[in-house]
Amino acid sequence: MSTGELAGAGVRNNGPPATIGSVEEDHRCSHLNCNTSGASFHGHLDIQTLGGAGFASQRTANDDCHRHWELASFAGLEVAIDLSQSDNHMYTLILKDTVLPRNPVDGREQSTVSWEAEFSKADCRVEHSTRSHTRTASLFIPWDRFKPTYRGKPCGASQPLDLSNIKRIAIMIRSFFGSQEGDFCLGIISIAGCSSPGLEPPTPCETCTNDQHAGA
């Protein structure tokens, strides 16, 4: 199995490390704190302001710097998380191969198709880690798990995802109209391109049950 690291303490690609920015409003507060061992995506999902709807996300920034990821040689992405720093919520990993300039009239970002794959701690295979005080788990997400959406809704994409030219990577948590709310935290050790899963079937975390997974 060969891998190419996309994110550890930050996100790496074919140039200098990309910076991370937030996509949120005051009622969708999230943070992404990075250090040498990984990153923590955390915050408080307040669904009251939007009557049950809402989301919070963090993404790679500086999309206009001609930065991109070449992932066509890989079979999918492998996400490694720190179990002690991760809850049982459902999270979404998002890829974009098209990012448009901001609207010249109002300065808002113009919408494009996103490719999304959902996962939770219950999907991951528990691993033994050499890192002190860290219990890790990993999940392989093949490309066919990423489904096209437009402004948060499933859509039919006219073209497949261009894996040779990924412009943006994001991590998001949705409220699912009230199914998820309040404090959240996902400890990300790495996100890496992976040529083959090389993993046995997932061993559910002892703190995650099938009922928790289905209701996330």
TrEMBL record:
Q: Which SUPFAM superfamilies match?
A: Galactose-binding domain-like (SSF49785)
Protein name listed in UniProt:
NADH:ubiquinone oxidoreductase intermediate-associated protein 30 domain-containing protein
- Superkingdom to which the source organism belongs: Eukaryota
**GO annotation, biological process:** NADH dehydrogenase complex assembly
Q: Where is this region: Disordered?
A: 1-22
Which Pfam families does this chain map to? CIA30
Q: Could you tell me which species this protein originates from?
A: Capronia epimyces CBS 606.96
Q: Which family, according to the similarity comment?
A: Belongs to the CIA30 family.
NADH:ubiquinone oxidoreductase intermediate-associated protein domain sequence ranges:
31-188
| An annotated Gene Ontology molecular function | unfolded protein binding
List the taxonomic lineage. Answer: Eukaryota, Fungi, Dikarya, Ascomycota, Pezizomycotina
Q: Which residues form the signal peptide?
A: none
